[in-house]
Amino acid sequence: MKKVLIVEDEERMRELLTDHLTSWGYEVTGVSDGETALKKLKEHHFPIAIIDLRLPGMDGLKLLEKIKEIDPSTESIVITAYATVESAINALKKGARDYLTKPFKMEELRVVIEKAMEEKLREEENRYLKDHHREKVTFTDLVYRSRKMKEVVEKIKKVLKSEVTVLVTGESGTGKELVARIIHYESPRKEKPFVVVNCAALPETLLESELFGHEKGAFTGANTRKIGKFEFADGGSVFLDEIGEMPLPLQAKLLRFLQYKEFQRVGGNETIRVDVRIIAATNKDLKEEVKKGNFREDLYYRLDVFPIHLPSLRERKEDIPLLCENYLARRYPHKKISPEAMDLLLNYSWPGNVRELENVLERACLLSEGETILPSHISLPFPRGAKELSTLEEMEKNLIQEALKLTRGNQTRASELLGITRRTLIYRMKKYGINPKEFS
């Protein structure tokens, strides 16, 4: 969420913008022309792009059109020293979010960017709540038969009625948020809010406001008082996901909160006390992060009061058949997995863990027209004993070709099978040189 692309041909201005945005906590990529910008956009997702209207070769307006084709979710902010009413209207029509005339104050740009970032985060949160809304979870939501997961459940049970801080560790996709939800909803706090904060999703300034709130006038753009997550969750639990990504200055403020259960809103003098249980999660080795100077040692010991480590899926492969059975029962009750397909799943290392397994099952169900999922429907980096696929691009190309084959070249149906838009499918086909007519 913190990446920004700057497209500015004037080197001095590009460096100035890069320096300021970096100091504000953003990860910045700066380029001097539209063609290079499009190449970067095809390689990475940028929530924000800052574009000069006058560029060598492709101008800013044409670039705006291309950006919307590649990634409609990218918000573009246009800057120019040659402002006219017509150019402003054209930029906005082409999809620009805002329009700044040079010379402008850097604080003005900061307000525009942070407002865009805040709105994008709200959109993501609303989309998540709409698509992934869940009722209160319980132990029945944990699917397992392995000894390692039984040990995890026993640890969870021991911590339910206490108020200690819990640190959930494990690789990405192992189910850390699910465990945090179970701890909350099986505890006496279950009727109070469970609030999720992704510490990697916002730059430091916005993350501080997200956690602690701010007073009106605390900074440029703070037009009203905002209640932070800690205040909102009073009586409940706050899940700090990716805690290892929290900036060091904020770590000090979190430490104080853990010590005294009190804080002040940004720009405020009032001391606010709340009763909140902290559950943190990370896929990093925080001990190593402490040694590297990236994480405060005193905060680590405050968080590590009751650690719960989740095993990777490759460490609990006996759970795979049960996980598959549970997923299909919930999503595709008419589907079943052939023994040969299950062998593929059991012999794969699952670097993305349970999340990756669910994604593979979802694709397999979409690709399988009958009731049985066969090995040909399982898309893995090492499918059906074939030679190793060297890149994710080759995997993606193979998936698109399979979908087009199944739909006899029907691009609308193929995009539905793949779970992407038709526009994205067309872009990917052009990228990989795939002709849909070959499959009709």
Walk me through what this model shows.
- With 440 residues, the chain is α/β, with parallel strands linked by helices.
- 46% of the residues lie in helices and 15% in strands.
- The strands form 5 sheets. Strands 2-1-3-4-5 form a 5-stranded parallel β-sheet, sandwiched between helices. Strands 7-10-13-6-14 form a 5-stranded parallel β-sheet.
- The longest helix is centred in the first third of the chain and has 27 residues, at 106-132.
- The two termini are 40 Å apart.
Pick out the low-confidence regions.
130-134, 382-391
If you compute it from the alpha carbons, what radius of gyration comes out, rounded to the nearest whole angstrom?
A: 25 Å
Biggest beta sheet summary: 5 strands, parallel
Mean pLDDT: 85
* Percentage of residues in DSSP E strands: 5-15%
Summarize this structure briefly.
This protein is α/β, with parallel strands linked by helices and 440 residues long. It has helices at 11-23, 34-43, 60-70, 85-93, 106-132, 147-159, 176-185, 204-212, 229-232, 248-260, 286-292, 297-303, 320-331, 339-346, 353-367, 392-406, 411-418, 422-432; strands spanning 3-7, 27-31, 48-52, 75-80, 96-101, 166-169, 194-198, 213-214, 226-227, 237-241, 262-264, 271-273, 277-282, 306-309, 336-337, 372-373.
